[in-house]
Each structure stands twice: as C-alpha cells, then as structure tokens.
Amino acid sequence: MNSVISILIIFSILSSSINEIENSFYHGDLAKLKKFFPDDREIFVFLPKPFSLTGYLSKDQTIYTFDWIFKDYKTVSIRVRGGNTIKEKKDFVILKTEWNFFNRTSRKNYMSVILISLKKIQNNWKIIEIKSKEF
Predict the structure, then answer these.
(1) pLDDT tens sequence across 22-80
(2) DSSP state, residue 64
(3) At a CB cut-off of 8 Å and minimum separation 6, what does 8 contact?
(4) Can you name the residues that pair with 85 across neighbouring β-strands?
(5) Rounded CA gap, 29 and 45, in Å?
(6) CA dihedral in degrees (133, 129, 13, 97; nearest 10)?
(7) 3-state secondary structure of 90
(8) Which residues are 97's β-sheet partners?
(9) C-alpha dihedral over 102, 108, 112, 118, to 10 degrees?
C-alpha cells in the first residue's frame, strides 16, 4: 500500500512540474524554467531550424540559450500532456510536446515536436534533454 501512495505522490509532483514547464514556455518565463535545469550535469539540446542548435550545454549555457529564444520567439501554443509521455518510470519520463511559435521580427511561424526528458534528481524533476523528434 505504501508503494502505491509513493507512486501517486511522485506522479502528482511530476504533473505539477509538467504544468510549470508548459507555462514557462508559453509565457517565455526563464526564471521558472531554469529551476528545472540541473546544476551538476549538462543538458543535451537539439533544436533544428530556426535555432540550429545541437550540443551538451551547462546550466548557464542553457539559460543563455533560452533567454535568446524567448526574446526572439513567441510561443503561440505548447501542448504537454500526460497522455503524450513516451516513456515513464518512477524517476524518468520523456514528454512529447507540440510547440508552435513565431519569430518576433520576421513573423514567420514554426511548429516543432519536441521531446523533453525529465529525471528525478534529489527529489526534484530536472530536464536532462530537449530535442526535436526528428533527431
């Protein structure tokens, strides 16, 4: 019975984290998003055009990258739903998101399917990968 309660608590916290990540992207709120970046490990990021970005980034590099993205691009919609998890374990989940955004200068619209991998590190969900599904 205790293991069932533990799993329910874990997925409740995960659901709250997913909502925060979704809202952070939608509002371009880097202050909220950066708390999901781990301090002591790099994050693998693969974002194709218009970003053309691939690599393992430190927390500071990831913050800088998303600061640039949120300044130059506006999120129109982002859909992260529990039903869109690809892989789910007690301490690891891959979310499938549909991210619609546009360039603030050119007004060109984009849509990308992004996979966001979350790992539970010291009782907190942290983003360890952000990559295009086309990777």
Answers:
(1) 899 999 999 999 999 999 999 999 998 899 999 999 999 999 999 999 999 999 999 87
(2) H
(3) none
(4) 95
(5) 18
(6) -20
(7) coil
(8) 80, 114
(9) -30
